[in-house]
Design goal:
39% of the residues lie in helices and 22% in strands. It has 18 helices and 19 strands. A hairpin with a 6-residue loop joins β14 and β15.
C-alpha cells in the first residue's frame, strides 16, 4: 500500500469513527442545531421579528416560525441584496448561490461561512466513508474530476455570487488540489459544449480514478470522450473506479453508463443543495442516504399528502416514521427558517436516520387527481427496463388532457439510447407498475377516466437541444421528470 493510501485509509477510519457519535445521537444533535441557530440569529432582523429570544422548545419554534418558500422569505433577502447587515444571519452572507426561481425569477440563496464548511465536510466524509468500507484507497492516488458549473463568480451588493458547484470549486481541500481536474481555465469556459470539448482534451491520457457530476452531463462527457478516442471509458481511464453523483435518480442512466464505461464501477450518491448539504450515501451495502443531522441544519418534516391542507402535521426528526413521504423543511446557519426546499423524502431507516429522495412537491402529474410522484415513475421505468431490456437517455411525463380521440392519458416522452424490442410490452409494464404503486392512478384506469399511458419517442439529443434552447445546458440544470402541464412536453415535440 502506497504511503498516501495508507494514511488515507486511517484518516477515513478516524472520521467514520468520529462521526458515529452524532449518527447514534441524531435527535440530540438536532436539538443542539436548533438551539445554536436560535442563539446565533436572535439579534438579526428575522430573529427579532419572530421572537427568537422567547423560543426555548420546539412547540414554541413552530408557533413563531411559519413554513415558507423562497417567495415568502424574499422580503428579507431583498434587504440583504440592498446591502443591509444582520438580516437573516449575523453579518452578511459569504456567498449567494444563484438558482432558477419560479415566480421570483432568479433566486439568491445565502451561504454563510458556517454553512459553507459543512458543504465541504459532508462531501469529504462521503468519500471517506466509501474508502473505509470498500478499502479502495486507490481513488486518492490518481486524478479526479468534478463536472461542475463555472467557478467565475459575479458580485451582488459586494457578495460573491454564482452556481453552488462553481462556489464549491473554490473550497477544494488543499490535499486534493493537485489531483483535481479540469484546470481553472477550462472550468471557467461558459459555453457548455465548448467546455466539455476542452475537458476531453485536458483529461485524455490522465490517470482519472474518481469522476463526479450530474448523470446526464457526465454521460455527455463520456460520449464526447468515446467519439474523440474511439475507445470506451475503461480503456481511456483504466483505473477509474468511483462515480459520485447527485441531482437526479441514477437508476435510469445506469445501464447506459455501464455500456459507455465498459465495466462496473462503484457509485456514491450525494444530496447537496444550495440551501445546505442534506445527506450522503455512507455505505454500498445499506440502502439510503445518511441524513446530515450535525451539519448546520435543523430539519422539520410535513407529511406530503397533507402539505396543501390547512392543518399540516409538522414534526421534528424525533417523530418521523419509516415509509412515509415527507416534505423536508430546512432551518439553516445561513439564515433560512421554516424553509420549504421543495423536495420530498422517505425514511428507510431510523437507526441510523437514512432517507431516499422521492421527488419534488411541485413536480408531479395530477391533472386528474392521481398525484403521481417521482419515486413512482422511477420504480415503474426501472421495472420495465429489467423486464424488457432498454437503455434510456432521458424522459419526461406530462398529462394529455384533451386528445384528438379517446380518453385522456399520461404521455411519457422518452429518448432511448437503445429502445426495447417490444415497445408495447414496455409500455404495458410501466403502466402496470404505476398502478401497483399508485392506487389513485389505478382507480382512474379501472374506472375508465384515463386510458393506459402512451410512450412518445424523442429524437436523439432531443432533451439536450431543449435544454440548450432555454439556456440551461450543463452544470446543475436538469429536466423535470414530471409536470402537471404540457409546457415542456410541447417544446420537446417541436424539436
Amino acid at each position: 500500500m502506497a504511503l498516501k493510501s495508507f494514511f488515507g485509509y486511517y484518516f477515513a477510519k478516524y472520521i467514520v469513527k468520529k462521526n458515529s457519535s452524532w449518527i447514534k445521537n441524531a435527535v440530540k444533535s438536532q436539538d443542539k442545531q436548533r438551539k445554536f441557530i436560535i442563539d446565533r440569529a436572535k439579534n438579526t432582523k428575522f430573529g427579532k421579528d419572530h421572537n427568537f429570544s422567547k423560543i426555548s422548545t420546539y412547540e414554541e419554534w413552530k408557533k413563531f416560525v411559519p413554513i415558507r418558500d423562497y417567495e415568502g422569505l424574499k422580503p428579507y433577502i431583498d434587504l440583504v441584496l440592498c446591502g443591509e447587515n444582520d438580516v437573516l444571519w449575523p453579518g452578511k452572507p459569504l456567498y449567494f448561490s444563484k438558482t432558477s426561481g419560479t415566480t421570483s425569477g432568479s433566486k439568491h440563496i445565502p451561504i454563510s461561512k458556517h454553512s459553507m464548511k459543512h458543504h465541504i465536510i459532508a462531501a469529504r466524509d462521503a468519500i471517506l466513508a466509501y474508502i473505509y468500507e470498500s478499502k479502495n484507497t486507490s481513488v486518492i492516488n490518481g486524478k479526479m474530476i468534478f463536472i461542475q458549473g463555472s467557478p467565475v463568480l459575479s458580485s451582488t451588493s459586494g457578495i460573491l455570487t454564482g452556481r453552488l458547484s462553481g462556489i464549491v470549486a473554490h473550497h477544494t481541500p488543499w490535499y486534493l488540489k493537485k489531483n483535481q481536474l479540469p484546470s481553472l481555465k477550462t472550468n471557467s469556459i461558459r459555453s457548455w459544449e465548448e467546455k466539455i470539448g476542452a475537458i476531453c482534451n485536458e483529461t485524455t491520457g490522465a490517470d482519472l480514478r474518481l469522476i463526479s457530476g450530474i448523470p446526464p452531463w457526465v454521460q455527455m462527457y463520456f460520449e464526447k470522450l468515446i467519439e474523440k478516442t474511439g475507445e470506451n471509458i475503461a480503456s481511456v481511464f483504466p483505473n477509474f473506479s468511483l462515480f459520485i453523483h447527485g441531482g437526479v435518480n441514477f437508476s435510469p442512466y445506469k445501464k447506459t453508463f455501464e455500456k459507455l464505461v465498459g465495466k462496473k464501477v462503484d457509485s456514491v450518491e450525494l444530496y447537496p443543495a444550495s440551501e445546505g448539504f442534506i445527506a450522503y450515501q455512507n455505505s454500498l451495502i445499506e440502502k439510503g442516504l445518511l441524513l446530515c443531522v450535525n451539519h448546520g441544519i435543523f430539519y422539520e418534516f410535513i407529511v406530503a399528502d397533507s402539505f396543501y391542507e390547512k392543518k399540516q402535521k409538522r414534526i421534528s426528526l424525533e417523530d418521523v416514521e419509516v415509509g412515509v413521504n415527507y416534505v423536508i423543511i430546512l432551518n439553516t446557519t445561513a439564515g433560512l427558517y421554516g424553509y420549504n426546499i421543495g423536495d420530498t423524502i422517505r425514511f428507510v431507516s431510523l437507526e441510523p436516520y437514512k432517507i431516499v429522495v422521492t421527488g419534488r412537491i411541485k413536480h408531479f402529474t395530477s391533472a386528474f387527481g392521481e398525484h403521481v410522484i417521482g419515486e413512482e415513475v422511477d420504480f415503474a421505468i426501472n421495472k420495465a427496463i429489467k423486464k424488457v431490456p432498454a437503455e434510456i437517455v432521458e424522459f419526461h411525463v406530462a398529462p394529455m388532457v384533451n386528445p384528438t380521440s379517446g380518453l385522456p392519458y399520461h404521455e411519457w416522452l422518452i429518448e432511448f439510447e437503445r429502445p426495447p424490442k417490444d415497445m408495447l410490452l414496455f409500455e404495458k409494464t410501466i403502466d402496470n407498475c404505476l398502478q401497483e404503486k399508485n392506487s389513485y392512478y389505478k382507480d382512474l384506469i379501472k374506472g375508465k377516466v384515463l386510458r393506459s399511458l402512451k410512450i412518445t419517442l424523442i429524437s436523439k439529443n432531443g432533451f439536450r437541444k431543449h435544454m440548450q434552447s432555454i439556456g440551461k445546458l450543463g452544470g446543475q440544470n436538469k429536466v423535470p421528470r414530471l409536470s402537471n402541464n404540457r409546457k415542456i412536453a410541447d417544446k420537446l415535440l417541436c424539436i
